Structure formats: C-alpha cells, structure tokens
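User: ok so my PI wants both of these folded by tonight, can you help

Assistant: No problem, let's get them done. Here's the first:
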Amino acid sequence: MHLLRGVIQHYAWGTTSFIPELLGIAPDGQPCAELWFGTHPLAPSEVFVDTEWLPLAEVTGDLNVLVKVLSAQQPLSLQTHPSAQQAKKGFLQETKMQIDSAKRCYQDSNEKSELLIALTRFEALCGFGPVEDSVRMLQSLGCRIEADILQADGIAAYLAWAYSCTEPPILTDAPSWLDKLAQMYPSDASLRVAPLLNHVVLEVGQAIALPSGNLHAYLSGSGLEVMTSSDNVVRAGFTGKHIAVQEVLDIVNTQVLIKPVQTPVKIGTTWNYQSPTDSFDVHLQEIDGVGHIAPQPLNRILVCTEGSTDLLARGSAGIILRNESLTLHGNARVFVCAGSR
C-alpha cells in the first residue's frame, strides 16, 4: 500500500471543521466542502512512492473511481447526472459550441453514478416518492393546483409544467427542510419539484445510491461519496451556478424510488454496500486487532474514517495496487473503494 494525499475543495456550502478535524489539522475558517482522492484532472491526488510524492496517475494510470469526503453546511443544488451515452453526446456538443466551463453541464465524457455513505447524520432528497404520497404532501402545503396536475398527468408531465411556471408556489406549513430552501431561493421553480422527492435522514453507516438520472440534493451532513470519475453535474435549481432545466428534463429518471435508503450487509468484519453501477464497488472493513485485505486485479483506494492502524490512521488514505494484498494491525474502520480499472 502507498499513502495518498488528497485535495480539499473550498466550496461555499462546506463546513469549516469536519474535514480539517478528520485530517488532524486546525480549521482556518475556510469552508472545506470536499476532499478528493483519485486521478480526476480537476483535483488529482498524489501518492507516496519510495521517498517522494508523485501524481497518482503516473503510478496507476487514470482511475475510473473517485472518492470524496463531503461535508455540507448548506444545501447543494438540485441536480442529476448523465449516463455514459448522454455524457459523450453532451460533452461533444458543448465542446463544439465552445461553451465556457462555468456554463457547461458536461465537463467530461464520463457517466456519473454515486454512492453516499453517511459519516454523520446526513439529510438529503433522493429520487421520486410514490405519486400518492407526493399528492398528499402538495395538498398539505396548500398547493392544490399542483396536486391535481400531478395526480392527473404523472411525474414527467408535472416536471415540464412546474418548470414552465413563472411564479413561485405559495407554501404553507412547510417542513423545516423545505422552508429553508424557500427562504434561500424564494423564486426558484424547483420549490414545486422538491416535495415530490424522497426526504431521507441517514444515520451513520447508511447510504443512498444515485445512479445516472436520479434527481437529488444533499441538504446537510458529512459523508463518504464514491463515484465514477466524472464532474458532470446538470442542475435544476437551488443554486447560483448554471441551471439547465431542459437538459435535466431530457435525462432525469422519473420512475418512483420506493426504498432510497440502504443499510449495508455485514459478513464477518466486512460491511458490503450495493453499488448503483458495475463501475465501482465499496465495502467497509472493520479492523479489530488484525485485518487482511486479499489481492484483486484492481487498484483500490482506502480511506480510514475512525480509529487507527499501523499503516493508516483516522483521516488518512492509501491505495492498494493491482494484485497486492494488505494486512493492517489496530482498531479502525476503513472503506475500500475499487473501480473497474
């Protein structure tokens, strides 16, 4: 195993303390929103080999998995991500049109699926709830016209109608999460859409899977986010960044998501998560004394989030190269994240 050095992203919505405390450094007042481990060109990691730090891609080549520690003080945008086919088409079109990076939806040609595992209590919107539940929610908010349209026309038609409206909805008796969004973005058309989504509160260790097309928004909390190595984000609202409603409508998956929250399955000392894609796999290794990670023909990123071992302490990360094994001594919780290459 070789140690990794990640890159902190100082987005405005981040917390000031969680990531610095995880890394064992003093907070400096800056928002620390994400800590990236991978080879994505926006924030590539370094790896310690022999006596020096090298770009990770020089050792592993381009990895198709990207691992982030994410910590949100404020809600992130309502967004979705493209499939492989949609990403290739969109990236080619935006490149030909020479669209500025700040106004692009497609920063690369890669599909983007995600798995978010809670490291603290984590609140999010994830996928569409059953229509009958959403109708009741809209009615409770005083949005009777919205409720009637959703009940009569279904989710896809409702979305097209909601984003064509020029006036924001008038919400009454909104739950605290929706009231906060309404105060932050009082004229946002997505206020008509957010009540249709599953509002979830994850406890530590629980997860939500976000395949391409899933409409979602992270509201607050800290977690480990594992994804295909892509920065393609198509935003519908709740942000000052570029919004592309028509693109969202073209790629969003409007099927109902009955069980958005997953609890990992424990086998021995390993907790296994169900990935939204075959491009990456994630499991949590609980080490109590001695832990052994068997060899695989894949590069695997390790992130220690609790405890310490002889080679990895809380907040540190490493990479096991192809066909290498690893034995750790100590007491710790280590996430093992493997891409398909």
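One down. Here's the second:
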Amino acid sequence: MNQSTPKGFRLHIGIFGRRNVGKSSLLNAITRQNVSIVSDIAGTTTDPVEKPMEFLPLGPVLFIDTAGVDDTGALGELRIHKTRQIIDRTDLGIIVSEAGVWGDFEKQLVAELRTRNIPVTVVFNKSDLAEPGGELLNQLAEEKIPVVRTTAVSGKGILDLRQTLLNVAPAEFINHPAILGDLIGAGELAVLVIPIDKEAPMGRLILPQVQAIRDLLDSDAYCMVVKERELRPALDRLKRPPKIVVTDSQAFLQVAADTPREIPLTSFSILFARFKGDLSELVRGTLAIEQLKPGSRILIAEACSHHPIAEDIGRVKIPRWLTQYVGGKLEFKTVQGHDFPEDLSSYPLVIHCGACMMNRREMLTRILRCRQAGVPITNYGLTIAYSLGIFERALGPFPAALEVYGNAGKG
C-alpha cells in the first residue's frame, strides 16, 4: 500500500493535548516533514491537520494533529468540537503534555479515550527542559499507560515513540479482516455485478468494488466482473456455479431475478456493513422501517462529500423506495463527511452509507451513539434489500445476521 491508500483503510492516530505543548512539532518529527505550523504562540493549529504515511510494520496510517482542546471563547468552542470529532475516528491516541502541567484536563482525555477502548500513549515533550514527577509516572505505570519522553525539536525520543505506537496498535490493523474472501475460500469464484450507470465514475470503479476485487485476490480466490445485463449469460457459461454473487444494491431486483436461488446473493453495501461496522446491529436497525409513518424524519449519513446527480442513491432512490414502502411522504435530512448530529432524538431511523471512506472505529462510534440515543441505525444496502422485499435472501451469506433477523421476527 502507498500514499494512495484510502483514508478508511489507514490506522488513525490522533494527537491530543493542551495548546502549545508541542503537538505540531511532534507530528513534524514523527513524519520527518513540516506538516503542521509550529509557533510559540498558543493555539496556532486551528483545524485538524492530517498526514498520511507508511508506518511499518503497520502499513498505512493517518496522523491527525488536533487543535488544543483547552481553548476558551467562541473560537475555542469550535476547535473543541472539531477535536471531539477526531476522537470519534481515532484508533490510537497520543496525549502530549509536559512536566508540571498534567492535571484534570489530561486525566479527562485519558478517561475519554479509555472509555472508548482506544489505546493511549502519553508523551511528555520538551523533556530537555524538565522531567515529569515520579509519582505521576508511577500512577501511569499502574494504569498500564505507556509513557515516552521526547524533545520534538531535536528528535530525541521519536524512535522510542514509534516503537511504542507499534506495540500498542490494535491487533486488527496487523491482521486486517477480510471483506469477502472468508465467505468463499481459496480457489472459489465470486461474481461481482457492477452496473455502469450515471453514478459510475468515468474510466474507473468505485472504492468498494475495487477493494472487494483486491480482497478476493489476496484470498487466492477467483473473480468475475459483469454488468447486470450480462449476469445471466455469464452464469450459463460457467461449468459450476459461483460461491456467491455480489451486486451493487441499486441492481438488487434484477440480479436477484437472474441469480438461481441456490447461489448466495448479497450486495457490496451489506458486505461493508460487516467490514466497517456491526452487521447484526445494523440488521436490527433495519427492522425499524416497519415503525415508520408518513411524516417520519430520517437522517441520511454519507461518509464522503460528493455532488449529487439526478438519480443519487442516498438523496433520490432510497427516499423513493422507502416512501413507496411506507405509503406516505417522509422527511429526509442529509449530512456528509465527518458531520454527524449531536442530538439524534428527532430521528426514528438513521440510514448510513457503506462507510467505505471511513475507518471502522468512526463507524462503530456512530453505531454506539445511535444505540445510546435509542435510535435505530441501518445502511444503504440493508435498507434497499428490505424495502424491495429481498432482505432475507441478501442476508443468506451471513448466518449470524440471519439469525438476528429471524429472532426479531419471532419477537
């Protein structure tokens, strides 16, 4: 993987701390580049600064230098809000401090990250000027929080920090889960149905399709790619049926009609519900569609910012299919990128995209926030399959999720 690796596949490392403790200098030292502006004036970093890099042996990572979160005033509140958004998508947290300033603020940062099960490393920067107290170091040791002393401007301690980050990184970023390969096994065939319509980018495939193909290759499996109109003759040419057919959710009905019942069928979006989130929880959320009524307010969440087209999936097609299913007009609110409402109480349902541009932790954070608010959450593929009446079939490759659906139906 190289610098073109999508952000959603990168380990997100958030750098947090008070203003002017040297967070930006630390990032520059780690990356060996002048990524962030360094100044003696507190609060120079007003927006999060992102730096993708190759961090062996973990591979691609994304360092995020946040604004100081001890800010005051209106501008400070905006910086704090943005920094909290970074915590939502952080896989590994670095808290930067210096001797003599550790207090309740840093303790709260540690508590926030640990509550979310985010590994934490504490860096005492400017160690050439002063050393942290022994009592504090003993306390952090008792809490099993790694401590590194650095002097960012000279590079002292940076190699120790790199090694510590490698030691505490979540295991799933060393042994990355499969998207599709584990469902079919080595030497087996998957047929991917990829419509070439108005939403298909000129001259290339969209990210989930590319990632699914790569995942199959990494799993030593075979892959056949066809458009929806060529699926039936393609299947007829095979000497034996494929292990699975995966389609773009928008072509579900036609693909379901052309795929024999004995061949498992699902969509890219449902695969990503498992890969980037919690499929069982999203299946439960999908069932809330039955509780919708005309006038219900639904939140559509898109991980990326794009210019919507005439037949946009999140803004046109899903609203149309859901409106038909419910039998009355619904109200839809759309958010993009890292924006996600603090107050979800007015929404009886949140419908998320496949989250291919997000890392898994941010998607899981959104699922957790919805659960805490008592608001069901689902995703595009699950919503489409349910509203078109092929939900059970689309869950066929996932026995655990199918069981959740069956148990909910019995309840």
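The first helix runs from residue 23 to 31. The first strand starts at residue 11 and ends at 17. Good luck tonight!
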